[in-house]
Amino acid sequence: MRQFWWVNHKQTVRQEIEGQYLWSPKTESNGARSEFYNNMRRASPGDLVLSYADQMIRHVGRVAEFAFTAPKPEEFGDTGAYWSNEGWLLPVFWTPLFPPVRPRALLEAIRPFLPSRYSPLNPVTGGGNQKAYLAGIPEPMFDVLTAGTTFSREMLGRGGSNSLNYEVVIELLEDTVQRQIADDMQLEDTTKKSVILARRGQGAFRANVESVESECRLTGITNPTLLIASHIKPWRSCHSAQERLDGDNGLLLTPDADLLFDRGFISFEDNGEVLVSPRVDQRDLRRLGFDQLVMERFGFAEAPAIWRTNSFSPQKCNYMAYHRSEVFVS
């Protein structure tokens, strides 16, 4: 079901519109969770977003991917210097709205639709609420705000399908991390080489994973030529060479299972039980050949033993907790 969103991003509107994304910290500066930042994880591909800055709505966007962990964009510069460096990146394809809309002029019409909590606007003054970033709005409010405007619905519907996909963005992010590793004067050359090979699940990292894992946790396949060494805490998110090379920070997965795990569509409990995102299409899982997974996870069959009894080590559980919290699309 399509959702509708409103983003207050005066400080970063130029960077986010030009870059075709939204970015937020994961928490407030004091470490508290923010409902507006949590909404970054709730947005789904196909949702529509209104861009509000300087008291005007000038763009409408379509969410192109689920949000994922990413560092604060370099183009933000000193903006939001108090924000943490790690946050949520939500790819959004933006298109101009003509003419721009001044919500304050439509306040009487949209006031009945403003959320009672976490509203993007002050219902009395019509100004943007402080600390509000990504806020959910009802479809009727979206319709009122865009009723007298035009925007390319065709372009909005198909735009961004290539340039904004997850793989492209991650490749760019990891290229940046790799350059930082190559320039790190505190790492020996042999360690740099190992860490860079680990990005692709190769070298010492693969050997370390194989020392603690022997099969795909999802399919049970044991043939090493059919398995990928996949990081649990993503390579780009690790804070040290040790984390990037740690065998406990890895699983052996078949290519399809690796894709699902890396994108956060599946994860694992500490006891080895498979978690399936409620936002992944069951039909897509079946097309990938995971019929048994669909049947068990959606209440049609008993879980295979491999999914219930193959528990993780305490060290691996720490990494898996990160995956469930920061990667899994729950």
How would you characterize the overall build of this protein?
With 330 residues, the chain is an alpha+beta fold. The chain has two domains: 161 residues, ph1033 like fold (Roll), CATH 3.10.590.10; 159 residues, no CATH class. 34% of the residues lie in helices and 19% in strands. It is built from 14 helices and eleven strands. The strands form three sheets. Strands 1, 2, 3, 4, 5, 6 and 7 form a seven-stranded mixed sheet that branches. Strands 8-9 form a two-stranded antiparallel sheet. A hairpin with a 2-residue loop joins β3 and β4. The mean pLDDT is 90.
Structure at a glance:
This protein has 14 helices and eleven strands. The protein is α+β, with helices and mostly antiparallel strands and 330 residues long. Strand 3 and strand 4 form a beta hairpin.
| Low-pLDDT windows of residues | none
Q: What is the CATH architecture assignment of the largest domain?
A: Roll
Name of the top-level CATH class of the largest domain: Alpha Beta
Along the chain, the helix and strand elements come as EHEHEEEEHEHHHHHEHEHEEHHHH
Main pleated-sheet profile: 7 strands, mixed
The whole-angstrom Rg is 22 Å
Q: What's the helix count?
A: 14
Strand content: 15-25%
